[in-house]
Amino acid sequence: MSGLIDPTTSILTQALDGLTSRQAVISSNLANIDTPNYQPQSVDFETALQAEIASMNSSPGNALPPSTGPSAELAMETTDPRQYSTLGSLGDGSSASVATVGENTRNDGNKVDLETEMTALTETQIKYEADSRLITAKFAQLGDVLGGQ
Known about the structure:
The protein is mainly α. 47% of the residues lie in helices and 5% in strands. It is built from 3 helices and 2 strands; from the N terminus they run H-E-H-E-H. The radius of gyration is 18 Å and the shape is elongated.
């Protein structure tokens, strides 16, 4: 089936999967906000996507944006590793890595920070909405090509 879907659609689909995983982990962190000694977790799927895009770019016949040249200069710059990558997806469909995070410890040993988790949840929702709109537009284009309305 991979021959029926272009690389962009595949990447967007995997991004939605990664964002869904991230939202589940954030929800778990929030649900355990009062659990003593709970260590919050995070999901990093952007690293897997970067590796997948690199492998796709090395395969002949893929029409992904170049990693060098004029298009690469338009890439979003990040100043903090927690910022959204312009890539934003699981590249190979494998599960995203889950890491324990958290620096502030409360008296009960719980390291969940409500503000951090709510910010991460909001960012994840915004990214999910953007990726959903992009994939919807891709399928609308396919419908137009096939003679749909």
